[in-house]
Amino acid sequence: MPTQKITREMVVEAAFRLARERGAEAVQVKAVAAALGCSVQPVYGYCGSIEGLKRLVTERAGRELHAYVAARLDPADRFGSLGRAYAAFAKEEPHLYRLWFLRPRPQVASLGAIFEAEGDPAVPGLLAQQLGISRKKATALYFQMMIFNTGLSFMLTALGENTDAAEVQRLQNSALAAFCAAAQQEETE
Predict the structure, then answer these.
(1) CA–CA separation, 114 and 118 (whole Å)
(2) pTM here?
(3) Taking the domains of the chain in order of start, what are their residue ranges?
(4) CA separation (Å) from 94 to 12, 53, 61, 100, 116?
């Protein structure tokens, strides 16, 4: 029987499946090789090291997250649907959520730097227009909700299927209302 040619994509997908099913700690060269039914040589050949393999899997998890979120964005409620999509992903894909959000970020040294690097630059303008507040206040509101939703979503990775989706939405709506009211109040002062 001819041997199957192992490709880089096959290596990354096998490692991605391990991460999705069992978490980042399951991504080991021997485990990927076993899943592919090959020696460790193709894994090292395509990835160079375990760090290289994990970097490729993390990038793959990011693409999965971004596709998931993009498919769930509501143009009429971009801000709210963004938070709901992240929370749903955390609930449905806890290992991938943790893998992406807990990845090392050597180029950033603060929460503000993460926000600048990873926030959607269109959201503050939409919020400013929708709420009648300055872009500066809208940016602060977006930053607060990003921190709230990230924390909430991490809690959901622990709860998984035991999460009450209606409760999550109530919490998000309550936080958004409180942050919006504070932003609007500050705008009038």
Answers:
(1) 6
(2) 0.85
(3) 1-72, 74-189
(4) 19, 20, 11, 10, 24
CA gap 86, 154 in Å, rounded: 10
Q: Which amino acid type is present at position 88?
A: A
On whether the CB atoms of residues 89 and 58 are closer than 8 A, the answer is: no
For residue 187, the model assigns a pLDDT of 67
Closest C-alpha among 180, 182, 18 to residue 99: 18
Architecture of the domain whose range is 1-72: Orthogonal Bundle (1.10)
CB 8 within 8 A of CB 46: yes
- Residue 2: phi and psi, rounded to 5, are -70, 145
Structure tokens at 99: 């893998």
Q: Fill in the amino acid letter for 103.
A: R
Confidence tier at 120 by pLDDT (50, 70, 90): confident
Contact 160, 94 (CB under 8 A): yes
